[in-house]
Design brief:
disordered N terminus; mainly alpha; single chain; 336 residues; 2 strands
Length: 336
């Protein structure tokens, strides 16, 4: 090769290096974890847990809907006995219904990884859409489109969760007390809510139509036949629309804020959290959502099994035991 060729190669080096830096910036942090050290029986167990169960997913969804109905019935019955206690029951009910709604949303997340029916992905999406996505104002496909960017470019400039955290100001906000957490949530809630529903495709006219049609056919028509239209509309507004617009965004924003801390840790493993306190399971993270580290390590495993995987790794994986874990709401925990 002549001198001109060698000069051209040398001149290209900064160009290639700059391209590499741009790709790394888009990709973000490396994974930082390998399962190669796990015993064979643990690896085999993890493989079996990747198997999907459509009946189990549908049953979980039914339980969430039934629980919301039962909470609403209890609030109405208490209110008929005593108005003051009815108001108290309704305020508690707003939190409980939001928790169950969050569980339904998490089932959309599960379906976006084809964890309902991996053998028939089209059936996975159709059933998840009609069963859990349409009623929560989204679609499985739209959720997958944004969520897979999060997994594929973790902490990179395209990561939608990182961008949402930046808009919320999570890197700068003081979360040292319950009152400061409450103030922060109220401050970030309007922009957070708009960003969330935009990302899952809720602003689409087709999605809004499907949402309205689902609620009309599944909820309003049957309740109208039982109670009359005015009463049915009142119940729908009180026990679905108000929780969806008021208490669910609060719960969801706190839950998502607890999943990652992009400011700490050099890898995805070090920046992803397990939230395993009593309050997490009681309120913020239904359906095993608190074990978010498990989801990032094994995204093919349904959330239904995350608690099983957590206990399995706590017993057999010393590296996992050192991963970031919280036991209180938005507790500041540095990666080990």
């Amino acid at each position: 090769m002549d001198d001109a060729g060698h000069r051209a190669m040398r001149d290209d080096v900064p160009v290639f290096a700059e391209r590499g830096r741009k790709r790394a910036k888009r990709r973000g942090k490396g994974r930082g974890y390998s399962a190669n050290h796990l015993p064979d029986h643990v690896v085999e167990k993890l493989k079996t847990l990747e198997q999907t169960s459509l009946p189990a997913s549908l049953a979980d969804g039914v339980l969430y809907y039934v629980s919301i109905i039962l909470i609403g019935v209890m609030c109405v019955l208490i209110g008929q006995v005593n108005v003051a206690w009815g108001v108290v029951a309704y305020l508690v009910g707003l939190a409980l219904i939001a928790r169950q709604m969050r569980g339904i949303e998490l089932m959309v997340h599960d379906a976006s990884h084809w964890a309902w029916d991996r053998d028939n992905k089209a059936r996975n999406d159709v059933l998840a859409d009609y069963f859990v996505a349409y009623p929560t104002m989204g679609t499985t496909h739209a959720y997958r489109r944004g969520h897979f960017i999060h997994h594929g470019t973790f902490a990179g400039e395209q990561d939608p969760c990182k961008r949402r955290f930046a808009e919320m100001g999570l890197g700068d906000v003081d979360l040292s007390t319950k009152w400061k957490i409450a103030a922060a949530v109220l401050r970030w809630l309007p922009s957070y809510n708009m960003t969330y529903y935009t990302e899952i495709g809720s602003k689409s006219r087709a999605t809004l139509f499907r949402w309205a049609a689902w609620h009309g056919v599944v909820l309003l028509v049957p309740m109208t036949l039982i109670f009359g239209f005015a009463q049915a509309l009142t119940y729908w507004l009180l026990f679905w629309i108000v929780p969806m617009l008021v208490s669910l965004p609060v719960l969801r924003s706190i839950a998502e804020a607890e999943e990652h801390d992009y400011e700490h840790g050099e890898t995805e493993f070090e920046s992803t959290y397990t939230n395993d306190g009593f309050i997490h399971h009681l309120l913020w993270h239904p359906w095993n959502d608190g074990y978010h580290q498990i989801h990032h390590l094994y995204p093919n495993i349904s959330a239904r099994h995350h608690h099983t995987v957590h206990f399995l790794l706590m017993k057999h994986d010393p590296i996992y035991r050192k991963s970031p874990m919280r036991y209180a709401t938005l507790q500041q925990v540095h990666a080990a």
